[in-house]
Amino acid sequence: MDSAAPYLTDRSNDTAAGQVLGLVSGLVDAAGWLYNHWYLLALAMAVCWGVGELVVRRLAVRASAERMALELVSNRHFDPSLEEIFRRGVQLARASTAMPWWAPRRTKAVQIRLRADGSSPLRYRIEGPAGGQRLLSITPFGPDVTVNRARPIADETRTHTVRAEFILRGKPTAPLREVPLTPDPLQPLIDAVSDLRAELGDLAEIRLDIQRAPKWALRARRIQLMSAARRAERREAQRAARWLRQDASGIEDSLTWQLQQLLSDKPAAGASRRLVMPPVPRRVEPTEALGKLTDDDHLVRVQLLVMCASNTEGRAQARLAQLQAALDVFGGRSRWAMRGWRLGPWRIGADHWPTKRGFERRWNLGHCQPPRANWVRLEELTGLLKPPTMHCRLPVLAGDLPTFEFGDSELLLQGIYRGPDGRERLVATYAEETLFEVGVGKAGGGKTERALAQAIGWAHAGGGLLFVDPHRDSWPRATTFLAHQALMRRIALVDLNGLGADPRVSSWNPLGMHHQQTGHEVVEAITDAYASALAWDDATAPRAITILTAALVVLVAVNEAACQAGRPEDQATIFHVRALLTDTAFRKAALAAVADRLDEETRSWWQVVFPTLPPDAFAVVLNPIARLAANPITRAFLGQPVGVYNIRAAMDSRMVVWVCPGGNGPTDRLVTALLARDLLRAVRSRRDTPEAKRVPFRAYFDELITLTGAAPETIAAMFEDFRKYRCQVHGMTQLLARLPSPVRLSLVQNASTLATTAGSKSAIAPITAEWGDNPSPDRVATMERFEHYVSMNVHGRRVGPVQLRGPHLDAVFAAQARPRQVPTLEHAALANARALPLNQLTDRAAEQIGRVTAFLAERPPAGTTSVPLAKEEYE
User: Is the distance from CB of 740 to CB of 716 less than 8 angstroms?
Assistant: First the structure.
């Protein structure tokens, strides 16, 4: 038994050795077979990869269908801090993982879309997982940014499209350049798309995908970078050792070294070459080798895709080059570079096989598959993590400010805008939104020229307007461009300047009732006009207001009786106030004829109060009337029984009425006050018409300082009330500070459009203060002539202030100029106003007192009660 044990042991060892050899032989045979049939292994691997990729893609498409989109709109006061932007970046990174567990990593990303297609300078959208909507809807930017749920964007197919993917080049561990927030880091991108033309189909879009990277990918990247750094350090040490040995050998072989050996005391035979110690490779520090990849905090991977399109050849390529230059602003030791290869004049990139299909899949589905080099920290993306701020200069596109088209009644001309590309276009606002407009600037700066261009364009579009110019300079300037046959029947001129040897004057009876006005409104309008022009109020001149009101009530009743009797030519005028107060016979006849038309309080005043008034109490009322009567122009204009001027009828019939009061003296101010108050009464009377049927009407007031000096409260009320009745007011003035406080406050508060030309800083400051001193008064004060800064309302939001060049009539409306038809227009304008020779109207006004007296004498007494009418009758 003992002798058999070694035999069994040797036999088992041989069996084990045979098994090992058989296993090795089988492995060798299998390796040989695989080597000979390598294509089968490759095919199996390809099939596995294809099946896996197909499954991943199907899951990715399913996950992409559950994405949401938000659009962020910032206001003009948006000025975020670095901390607010950083917090937004943390939100984006966190929201990128709000996907189902089965979603592939390529779908776990949040996308920032910067898009320019002509509808706005730059639309800022956030797209990401639907589960991240709650997190992304509440931003740290506060109320200065509005977050709206966005709908999918459907793009039309453009003829020419270029695509590009950008990757980080340079030192992979170095950060991008730290771009300051002032000016806005988005400014280069906005400048690159500022000359985009929607009518040519231009489109530019940048998509930045942010994805939280997996830990294993970050560790692998760190290992790769550390290995590369160590290899680089070893190469550097070897290079240094090699140069050191070469330097040592060169020194020992030199003549100088040999002479030193000969002259030294030591024997040359014992000399030996010096020992050279090679430098040891320096220890690689992780912080130095890894750079921004050292820490895990706030480290993300990004994918930057760009697409530009146009229907015009070459514009898309040029746009891509502009965007590439704009992205260079973010470059430092690391920079954004276009991915691809360049072969001479050709570039192979995202527009070519084999990468084009993958680009389009990522673009259409929102998948994020960034290159391995695209690692950034959130601090590097601060310029792209927020919408445009207040420090960003936005271009004005056609979608922001429409282009003016001659004859379009929906548009109101504002000026000439010069785009970033040097193209100029006439811009406009929507007439429905332009309620009140204020133009400020020094004399000759172009504010009246701009108002004239606007009024002429509105008239040609079929709109009605009233242009009040105390100096009359606007009328001869406008006639050349209004002298069209289609307009002549709608234009009327009321000129109180009395120019020429035989001037022709229109007529207006403020007391006339032949236009079916409401009696008490007429009395109130005239009384308020007097009080405004003469600075009366209930504290300083209560008796004068009472006397004038009582007199007007009687004369209006007389005119109502005349019109009802079919004798409007026998109506009284404002000059008959003097006869009513001082002529006993006329007063007695008037009161007797209309006693039944007066209320009990008015009759009581004439019976009880009037006889107690001293004669000098009437002077304050009669003095302004005497001044009106002394001027032949105003006597002829206001002294006609059946006046032609009817601003309410002009509104409803879309008339173009030019009124030139004649100056700014006391008499002119009183006439202006009467006209202004009558306009206020006429506009308010439109409440008898349904709002939808009220015809839009525009009133242009040149030289507001002159007009408001006569009727400050009336002008202020216009800026407060006219919007309700579809009547818009445009005012021009040299100095806003010289306007009465009620007018200035109402005007600035309700203005839809604010405009200013150059001027002194003190005069401009009130307007620039409304814009937050952006632009500053210093900048506005140094503008060229005819340049304007204008802020406007378009689609319910403010646009501007934008620098515009005022439209010059000779250039803008050159095609509408009809200088040869000007005499015909002037004749037609006077005929429409039924202007007659001054002498004829003066004679008729002088005879009117007789006609009214005769009419009153023919009227039967309305009552039999005896009424004492003067102090003499008491005696």
Answer: yes
CB 218 within 8 A of CB 298: no
Residues 30 and 506: their CA atoms lie apart, in Å, by 117
pLDDT tens digits for range 397-449: 777 788 899 988 899 999 999 887 788 889 999 988 888 888 888 888 888 89
Q: From residue 109, how far is each of 92, 105, 839 by CA, in Å?
A: 9, 8, 87
Nearest to 532 by CA among 386, 394, 428, 678: 678
Q: Reduced to 3 states, what is the DSSP secondary structure of residue 195? A: coil
Tokens of 400: 């922001």
| pLDDT tens per residue across span 266-276 | 554 444 455 55
Contact 376, 67 (CB under 8 A): no
Query: What whole-number distance in Å separates Cα of residue 121 and Cα of residue 110?
Result: 23
What pLDDT was estimated at residue 70?
92
Using CA atoms, how far apart are residues 74 and 836, in angstroms rounded to an integer? 60
Contacts of 526 (CB under 8 A, 6+ apart): 510, 511, 548, 552, 574, 674, 677
Close Cβ partners of 845 (under 8 Å, ≥ 6 residues apart) = 573, 575, 635, 636, 639, 640
* d(C-alpha 208, C-alpha 380), whole Å: 13
**Which helix (H) or strand (E) segment is 552 a member of?**
helix 542-564
Residue count of the chain: 875
Distances (CA, A) of 611 to 286, 779, 865, 874: 110, 66, 16, 9
Identify whether the C-beta of residue 166 lies closer than 8 Å to the C-beta of residue 304: yes
What SS3 state is found at 138? coil
Interaxial angle between packed helices 519-534 and 619-630, expressed in degrees from 0 to 180 and rounded to the nearest 10: 90
* Average of per-residue pLDDT values in the chain: 84
Q: Identity (one letter) of the amino acid at 456?
A: I
Q: What is the DSSP string of 435-447?
A: -EEEEE--TTSSH
| 417 phi/psi in degrees, rounded to 5 | -105, 130
Token pair listed for 367: 């998948």
- Please spell the DSSP secondary structure of 414-471, one letter per residue: EEEEE-TTS-EEEEEEETTT--EEEEE--TTSSHHHHHHHHHHHHHHTT-EEEEE-TT
The neighbour count for residue 262, using CB atoms within 10 Å, is: 7
Alpha carbons 309 and 321: distance in angstroms, whole number: 12
Looking at beta carbons, which pairs linking 441-445 to residues 24 or more positions away fall under 8 Å?
Answer: 441/734, 441/755, 441/756, 441/757, 441/758, 441/759, 441/788, 442/734, 442/757, 442/758, 442/759, 442/760, 442/763, 443/734, 444/785, 445/757, 445/758, 445/759, 445/785, 445/786
Q: State how far the Cα of 434 lies from the Cα of 525, in Å rounded to an integer.
A: 27
**E strands present in 496-586:** 504-505
pLDDT, tens digit, for every residue of 551-560? Answer: 999 999 999 9
C-alpha span between 116 and 204 (Å, rounded): 5
Element (H, E) at 127: strand 123-129
- The strand pair at 656-660 and 491-495 is best described as parallel
Work out the number of other CB atoms within 10 angstroms of the CB of residue 314. Answer: 9
Q: Which residue pairs, CB below 8 angstroms and at least 24 apart, start in 215-221?
A: 215/296, 217/301, 217/372, 218/293, 218/296, 218/299, 218/375, 221/293, 221/372, 221/375
Minimum mean pLDDT range among 40-49, 118-127, 817-826: 40-49
**pLDDT interval class at 866 (50, 70, 90):** very low
Residue 684 tokens, joined: 């308010």
Which is more confidently placed, 274 or 217? 217
In contact, 530 and 673? CB cutoff 8 Å: yes
Phi, psi for residue 204 in degrees, rounded to 5: -140, 135
Instruction: With CA atoms as reference, report the closest residue to 874 among 607, 615, 619.
Output: 607
CB 743 within 8 A of CB 708: yes
Name residues whose C-beta falls within 8 Å of residue 110's C-beta, 6 or more positions apart in sequence.
92, 93, 95, 96, 126, 127, 128, 129, 132, 136, 209, 210, 211
pLDDT value at 760 more than 90 = no
pLDDT above 90 (res 785):
no
